[in-house]
Inverse folding.
């Protein structure tokens, strides 16, 4: 266990963390501000990945693919809110869970019908398939470094948007008291629609960046959805800052735990037991973390309301 | 009155149907929905192609195939098996991709006296202590393929290896099979999460471990993820990658050039040189576009086996069909298949390499034979 290995794994954890943040940021706003349980957020990741992969394949240019896929995901979020979601705001949470779970099934099947059941081909852009030396003799894939940078830029952008702009002030006001905000003459319906579409767009960006790294296939966003629910519970529902901190923590805990836990266990028990229990324990780690946070801070690390 | 007449007409038609000729019904269970849906789709294509090649008749009998989607869930598989046997009254239940699903339906189907033929899964209990004479495998026993990989790497004189497989029963079986024949140093044995999509952390650890070679079992989407990230991390300069069930007709279209040069072992390859295989691969490509995977080939072989069993015994009786299959010499895409005493095939294990074909499409090519007529290691525990 050398220093460079720990450094490399920290970068891996950061990359997982910022990807999670992009998914969780939208979800925490939708859940916290709009008080809407939206399970189909993973589908937005899938839509982003498919849009980018398909346009990249057609145009032969990865950057063009991403650039054009961003408005596609924004539009899909906007339309989804307009056609379906807005009719569900007044329903109770259980019905929202059922309806949005139905949406997951619908999107997965729609992708299979239009793109076929096979995974889509998508590869790294040539200009980013090189390595960067983060320390002398410690190469790290440039693309993954790019993912970290884009994720951090998005985080800064959202932070500025929420804390420094007029729209951000409306969002914060809407989070605290939607009725009062509406009474002050702010069009809360349009605001909700924009939040929803922006959230979908951020999840889509996560999908676009994941595309070249993983298999672009139907249902690819679901594992991320579960982890991002953990993130928003740890961070505090409705808090973007909380989502960021929690996403980085979850990314690091998951990655470092997965790699180092089996070897740490090996110090105490024999190898066969460590190899068996290690991965099982590592996959539980983030949920244990969530339970601990819930015990000491039931509203999360950065509660958004009161 | 009119209703009564219709019922009469239907029952008359039905009795006429049964009196006319004997027909055989096959329940084919596979995964058609979810992330693994592509595997089931290929198998369904292959079954339909086999039926077309046989003119809709198996062994001279009119044949019907009923497809059932198990959704990769053991409980669903069990319900479907019951429905196929009790309500559809099928003569054969076939298919099944996953070992845990096959374990779930093995007892109910074989106890019912229905013939059960696996097109893929081959868990060790069914080959050994829990074997049943009404079960026939048209694929392999789980350990056979990684045993081939172990032997190849042992013979190639590779000094150290790093192993990686998903943390579930088949993953552990595969690595156990590998270690039965590989005697070099094992630098690490890592069990990843089933369905894991990002392996970067494991790759960093692997780089630090510095083994001469790496052997993985990561089926389906996990294989696509792993190989992509392996290439992106520049791991080829650190270690040499060997695979089982990870680089195949299902993952190659998504991997393309990234897979070229990767070695794996398998009991089948699209370029196996025999008449049945040539016709199967050519017609599959023409009809569905793209190469079939080993899953498709085994599904095709399953229908050929049923055809062979009925033609030779002249009956769709479970006992008579199984007696024909147990005798072996079944015509398949892998040549004439021999059968072990536990009704699992005795077959060659080939070394395959991912290459580009004449049209620039990435496929696999046989580069050597690791085992000739390799039998599984559980048959001696099987007593019918």
């Amino acid at each position: 266990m050398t220093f460079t290995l720990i450094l490399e794994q920290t970068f891996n954890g950061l990359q997982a963390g910022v990807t999670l943040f992009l998914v969780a940021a939208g979800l925490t706003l939708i859940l916290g501000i709009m008080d809407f349980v939206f399970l189909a957020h993973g589908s937005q990741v899938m839509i982003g990945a498919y849009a980018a992969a398909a346009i990249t394949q057609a145009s032969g240019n990865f950057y063009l693919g991403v650039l054009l896929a961003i408005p596609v995901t924004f539009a899909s979020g906007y339309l989804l809110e307009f056609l379906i979601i807005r009719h569900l705001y007044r329903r109770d949470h259980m019905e929202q869970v059922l309806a949005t779970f139905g949406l997951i099934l619908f999107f997965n099947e729609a992708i299979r019908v239009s793109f076929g059941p096979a995974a889509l081909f998508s590869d790294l852009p040539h200009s980013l398939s090189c390595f960067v030396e983060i320390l002398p003799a410690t190469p790290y894939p440039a693309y993954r470094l790019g993912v970290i940078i884009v994720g951090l830029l998005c985080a800064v952008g959202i932070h500025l948007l929420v804390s420094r702009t007029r729209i951000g002030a409306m969002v914060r006001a809407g989070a605290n008291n939607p009725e009062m905000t509406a009474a002050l003459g702010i069009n809360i319906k349009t605001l909700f629609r924009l939040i929803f579409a922006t959230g979908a767009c951020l999840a889509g960006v996560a999908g676009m960046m994941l595309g070249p790294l993983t298999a672009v296939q139907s249902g690819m966003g679901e594992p991320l959805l579960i982890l991002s629910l953990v993130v928003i519970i740890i961070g505090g529902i409705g808090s973007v800052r909380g989502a960021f901190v929690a996403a980085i923590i979850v990314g690091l805990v998951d990655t470092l735990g997965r790699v180092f836990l089996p070897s740490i266990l090996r110090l105490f028990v024999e190898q066969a037991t460590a190899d068996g229990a290690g991965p099982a324990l590592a996959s539980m780690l983030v949920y244990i973390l969530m339970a601990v946070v819930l015990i000491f801070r039931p509203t999360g690390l950065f509660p958004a309301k009161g | 009155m009119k209703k009564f007449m219709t019922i009469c007409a239907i029952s008359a038609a039905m009795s006429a149907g049964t009196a006319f000729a004997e027909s055989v019904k096959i329940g084919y269970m596979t995964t058609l929905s979810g992330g693994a849906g592509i595997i089931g789709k290929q198998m369904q294509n292959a079954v339909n192609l086999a039926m077309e090649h046989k003119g809709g008749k198996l062994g001279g009998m009119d044949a019907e195939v009923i497809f059932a989607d198990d959704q990769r869930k053991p409980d669903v598989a069990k319900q479907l098996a019951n429905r196929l046997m009790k309500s559809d009254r099928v003569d054969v239940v076939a298919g099944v991709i996953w070992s845990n699903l096959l374990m779930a339906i093995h007892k109910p189907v074989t106890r019912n006296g229905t013939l059960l033929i696996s097109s893929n899964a081959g868990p060790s209990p069914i080959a050994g202590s829990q074997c049943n004479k009404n079960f026939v495998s048209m694929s392999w026993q789980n350990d056979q393929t990684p045993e081939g990989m172990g032997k190849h790497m042992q013979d190639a004189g590779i000094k150290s290896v790093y192993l990686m497989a998903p943390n579930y029963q088949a993953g552990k079986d595969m690595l156990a099979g590998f270690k039965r024949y590989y005697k070099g140093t094992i630098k690490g044995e890592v069990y990843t999460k089933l369905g894991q999509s990002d392996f970067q952390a494991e790759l960093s650890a692997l780089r630090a471990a510095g083994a001469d070679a790496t052997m993985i079992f990561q089926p389906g989407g996990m294989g696509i993820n792993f190989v992509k990230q392996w290439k992106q991390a520049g791991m080829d300069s650190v270690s040499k990658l060997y695979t089982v069930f990870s680089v195949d007709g299902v993952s190659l279209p998504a991997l393309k050039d990234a897979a070229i040069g990767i070695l794996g072992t398998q009991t089948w390859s699209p370029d196996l040189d025999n008449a049945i295989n040539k016709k199967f691969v050519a017609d599959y490509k023409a009809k569905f576009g793209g190469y079939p995977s080993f899953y498709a080939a085994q599904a095709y072989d399953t229908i050929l086996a049923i055809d062979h069993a009925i033609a030779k015994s002249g009956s769709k009786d479970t006992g008579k069909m199984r007696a024909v299959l147990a005798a072996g010499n079944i015509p398949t895409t892998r040549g004439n298949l021999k059968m072990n005493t536990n009704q699992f095939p005795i077959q060659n294990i080939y070394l395959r390499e991912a290459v580009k074909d004449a049209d620039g499409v990435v496929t696999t090519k046989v580069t050597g034979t690791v085992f000739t007529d390799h039998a599984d290691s559980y048959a001696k525990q099987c007593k019918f």
